[in-house]
Write a structure and sequence with these properties.
By secondary structure, the chain is of the alpha+beta class. It contains 16 helices and 15 strands. α15 packs across α16. The protein is extended. GO terms for molecular function: sequence-specific DNA binding. This is Transcriptional regulator PpsR. InterPro entries: Biofilm_reg_signaling (IPR052155), Homeodomain-like_sf (IPR009057), HTH_Fis (IPR002197), PAS (IPR000014), PAS-like_dom_sf (IPR035965), PAS_4 (IPR013656), PAS_fold (IPR013767), Tscrpt_reg_PpsR-CrtJ (IPR011785).
Length: about 475
């Protein structure tokens, strides 16, 4: 922070009315506290904010106007103002008369030797609203994604569990794209070995001709009558039916093989693994925290204890998870509100603060689970601070050019080195643009901010040869 070089000459002596107008104009809420920590005056920038707070602040200790979990932060603010005169920004939350708590960020200034403190506050409700909008948008994307995944999962499950043999065949090449386990069992092969092979294969000549006629009729008319077919080395007879499927620009044939005497379906039961979940969660590399509906910790695994820099689980039990999150009063409120509304939250970005000052970038996913009449919330916190950089390494050509440039320093004038370096960088940028656009020169020129004629001149100048001819005609599109 920098100060005025000559405040008295620049600002003069401000009277009380001018100072009050300045403070009221720059702060959403301004509070004057006496030496005993009692509110002596308060001003609000808007009537909406004034309606959120109790009108009887004046005459009350300021600590009584904030929520219990943020009183420690307010005490630190007052102590810092007394010791240093000017404080840094600290965030607290005030109970609201109209609903959820209001987060306010304060900075305090000691007023002379009287012991009074002036605190100016910024309303963080707008930030919380933006965070809520972001979470809502992410929730919508997640719902669409999981709806698609659920449809795909149901398809895969049905495809595998159906007792009839199902084959999905590429219509132009007539090769198997997918096969379910029942198809492998009927054809005497595993499904993975059937994929990629031509169909029909392994049937007698009469059956092969009948199946080929069936597939040709389906490709031409969309439907055809079922046919009977028999394998070469088996007396088992199948009823073969087919239908046409179109997916984007591709055509597939859905072929069903129904045995004339169907086999009894076999069912298998999966072992119950729920008893092992607790041991897996306790040893998980991600933090697992379970809280009640107020956000107070019921249990936490060892990974969370390590990131939060606390020794035992007993130290965390009963404490609010908000104590360790990056933005007290904001992050947990947003998470809890979305859990109550949507029951799940995914990839919520924030930080986790340790007891001894460490800060870790994390992503939080959470779920609300009902246990009788009292739900509880599970939080899965992942440390993302050590993710590897996705930057691409320098190419061998770039490394070689830098080495050559370094070797020529002292032997070639600087002006010539700069000119050659500029030409080399320009050529590399043109090659990168052509690579990004698939050698489409019109698109590359637009990407580089050049006209087509300028790009053509530079391509000829540097002798750049395109991997494939993609020059558009007319509109400039591939």
């Amino acid at each position: 922070m920098s100060s005025f070089r000559a405040p008295r000459e620049s600002l003069g002596v401000l009277d009380a009315e001018t100072t009050a107008a300045l403070v009221e104009g720059m702060a959403d809420v301004a509070v004057v506290v006496d030496a005993q920590g009692v509110v002596s005056d308060v001003a609000y920038h808007s009537s909406d904010l004034a309606a959120d707070f109790s009108p009887d602040w004046i005459g009350r200790p300021w600590l009584e106007t904030v929520s219990p979990e943020t009183r420690a932060s307010l005490e630190a603010l007052l102590d810092e103002a007394t010791e240093q005169g000017v404080t840094r920004w600290r965030q607290v939350t005030h109970p609201s008369l109209r609903g959820s708590d209001v987060p306010i960020q304060y900075r305090a200034l000691q007023l002379g030797q009287s012991g009074k403190v002036l605190a100016i506050g910024r309303n963080l409700q707008g930030m919380a609203a933006l965070q809520q909008q972001l979470v809502d948008a992410q929730q919508a994307l997640e719902r669409d994604y999981w709806r698609f995944r659920q449809v795909e999962t149901r398809y895969r499950l049905l495809f595998r569990m159906v007792s009839e043999a199902i084959l999905i065949i590429d219509a132009p090449t007539q090769r198997v794209v997918e096969a379910n386990p029942a198809a492998g069992q009927m054809l005497g092969e595993t499904p993975t070995r059937i994929i990629g092979r031509p169909f029909p294969e392994g049937f007698d000549n009469e059956s092969t001709q009948a199946i080929n006629g069936l597939l040709a009729g389906v490709r031409a008319a969309g439907r055809a009558d079922d046919v009977r077919a028999r394998l070469l080395d088996s007396a088992q007879e199948f009823l073969v039916s087919a239908s046409l499927l179109r997916q984007e620009n591709a055509s597939f044939l859905l072929v069903r093989l129904s045995p004339v005497v169907p086999d009894a379906a076999q069912t298998a039961s999966m072992p119950d693994l729920k008893a092992r979940y607790l041991r897996v969660l306790e040893g998980a590399p991600d933090c697992v925290v379970i809280t009640d509906t107020d956000g107070r910790i019921l249990t936490a695994n060892g990974t969370f204890l390590s990131l939060a820099e606390i020794a035992t689980e007993q130290q965390a039990r009963g404490e609010s998870l908000d104590r360790w999150l990056g933005r007290p009063g904001v992050d947990l409120s947003v998470l809890m509100a979305n859990l109550r509304q949507h029951t799940t939250v995914r990839l919520f970005a924030t930080t986790l603060r340790g007891e001894y000052g460490s800060t870790t970038e994390v992503e939080i996913s959470a779920a609300a689970v009902r246990n009788g009449e009292r739900p509880y919330f599970g939080f899965f916190i992942r440390d993302v601070g050590r993710r590897l950089s996705t930057e691409q390494p320098a190419s061998p050509e770039q490394t070689r050019w830098l080495d050559q440039l370094t070797e020529r320093v002292g032997r070639v004038p600087l002006k010539e080195l700069v000119r050659e370096s500029t030409d080399t960088i320009e050529r590399l940028c043109i090659e990168a643009a052509l690579k990004l656009t698939g050698d489409n020169r019109a698109s590359a020129a637009e990407l580089l901010g050049l006209s087509r004629q300028s790009l053509y001149v530079k391509i000829d100048r540097y002798g750049i040869v395109a991997e494939q001819a993609s020059e558009p005609s007319g509109s400039g599109k591939k």
